């Protein structure tokens, strides 16, 4: 089950996506579908078929966002989080092979199209919660246990 946590920026982005799809993209595609339908035989009309499919995708995403947005809990940064890894933190970690990773721990709705975000539900994020700089932590992976070291923790300034 997905966690319902989200950063303020993530919530704004989903809200903007909903508004863009509903107020701009959907009316634009609806006009094209209506125009293509007016041409007659829809079975061989590529404009109609393609844009009807796009309209279904938009409607599916809008339904999802309308259902998901009210369930999300926006987590604001609190000064009590300073120095430890919690939701919304930017974390830099390193392992014994000097592999470094830097990412932000966010809600599962925020990770798409971002290579520097990981879900709070991921094993890495779960293992990191509550850790401080210079702490070691163990993550279970398909290849076995991996030990990492916390180099740096930052929180975005709001």
Automatic annotation (TrEMBL):
Domain annotation Transcription elongation factor GreA/GreB N-terminal: ranges: 5-74
Keyword Cytoplasm in record = no
Give the Pfam families listed for this entry: GreA_GreB, GreA_GreB_N
Q: Which InterPro entries match?
A: GreA/GreB_C_sf (IPR036953), TF_GreA/GreB_CS (IPR018151), Tscrpt_elong_fac_GreA/B (IPR028624), Tscrpt_elong_fac_GreA/B_C (IPR001437), Tscrpt_elong_fac_GreA/B_fam (IPR023459), Tscrpt_elong_fac_GreA/B_N (IPR022691), Tscrpt_elong_fac_GreA/B_N_sf (IPR036805), Tscrpt_elong_fac_GreB (IPR006358)
Q: Name one GO molecular function term.
A: translation elongation factor activity
Which residue ranges does the record assign to the Transcription elongation factor GreA/GreB C-terminal domain? 81-155
Give the record's keywords alphabetically.
DNA-binding, Elongation factor, Protein biosynthesis, Transcription, Transcription regulation
Q: Does the keyword Nucleotide-binding apply?
A: no
> What HAMAP family does the database record attribute to this sequence?
GreA_GreB (MF_00105), GreB (MF_00930)
The text of the family note is:
Belongs to the GreA/GreB family. GreB subfamily.
Q: What does this protein do?
A: Necessary for efficient RNA polymerase transcription elongation past template-encoded arresting sites. The arresting sites in DNA have the property of trapping a certain fraction of elongating RNA polymerases that pass through, resulting in locked ternary complexes. Cleavage of the nascent transcript by cleavage factors such as GreA or GreB allows the resumption of elongation from the new 3'terminus. GreB releases sequences of up to 9 nucleotides in length.
Its recorded name reads Transcription elongation factor GreB
Organism source for this protein? Pseudoalteromonas aurantia 208
